Amino acid sequence: MRETLDKGLEALGLSLPEQSRETLCAFGQAVIKQNEVMNLTAITEPKQVAKLHLLDSLTVLRTAELSGKRLIDVGCGAGFPGVPLTIACPQAEITLLDSLGKRMHWLETILPELGVNAQCITARAEEAVADRREQYDYATSRAVARLNILLELTAPYVKVGGAVLAMKGAAAKEELAECKNAIKKLGLQLEEVREFPIDGASHAVIVLRKIAPTPKAYPRRYAKIKQAPL
């Protein structure tokens, strides 16, 4: 895992201290171990964990300067991308949000053991925003929903001037094409799509800048969002 991580960091043009690299691998191994008793990920081979979880998460660092900023990882699952970003940039204030209590309880237990400081919140994205509206510089998310649904769940968290950093695969541009209406309604503007080839597959970070407040009507209840995307 460590060798794959080191090579991948070099390919991404990222330089991390020894301690951060060790902690990233320790978290990767902790995910593999916990996956024996809890459904965290289908990816359990160490090299693949390094490529498809750790390195994929760290592509966010190539699209945004997180130091001194507040970021929320919406639908963090097993902790990706939020935990690797916290390890790589401890100067950022990172919040992990997910509705599955067992996963969040595990993160609340394992992160202090690894010396990782991130806030963990167990709640649905469309409900937790009530007292966190437009309080973050960045909202990110990975493998949660198609973009036209995801943006309604993430944009309300971001302050004007901040950005949604949506992590997508090969279908990134296709998903972008179907959510022009959502981008406009939510106060966003497409800034760039950064693509990072990892292990022969396309990984992209879509950067959508927040240029106006998101109307208070959003987010709607999840069933409504899914039934009638913007």
What is the topology?
Elements (H helix, E strand, L loop, with lengths): L1 H11 L5 H17 L11 H13 L11 E5 L7 H7 L4 E6 L2 H14 L4 E4 L2 H4 L7 E7 L4 H8 L3 E11 L3 H6 L2 H6 L2 E11 L2 E10 L11 H6 L3
Parallel strand pairs: 1-2, 1-4, 2-3, 4-5
Antiparallel strand pairs: 5-7, 6-7
Tell me what the structure shows.
By secondary structure, the protein is α/β, with parallel strands linked by helices. Helix content is 40%, strand content 23%. The protein contains 10 helices and 7 strands. The protein has helices at 2-12, 18-34, 46-58, 82-88, 101-114, 125-128, 147-154, 172-177, 180-185, 222-227, and strands at 70-74, 93-98, 119-122, 136-142, 158-168, 188-198, 201-210. Strands 3-2-1-4-5-7-6 form a 7-stranded mixed β-sheet, with helices on both faces. Strand 2 (93-98), helix 5 and strand 3 form a beta-alpha-beta unit. Helix 1 runs parallel beside helix 3, helix 2 packs antiparallel against helix 4 (82-88) and helix 3 crosses helix 4 (82-88). It is globular. It starts with a helix and ends with a helix. The model has no long low-confidence stretch (mean pLDDT 94).
- Sheet with the most strands? 7 strands, mixed
Q: List low-confidence stretches.
A: none
Please state the overall shape, judged from the principal axes of the Cα atoms.
globular
Can you count the helices? 10
Strand content: 15-25%
Our Rg estimate from Cα atoms comes to: 17 Å
Distance between the amino and carboxyl termini: 41 Å
Average pLDDT rating: 94
Helix/strand/pairing category: alpha/beta
| Adjacency order of strands in the biggest sheet | 3-2-1-4-5-7-6
Helix fraction, binned, reads 40-55%
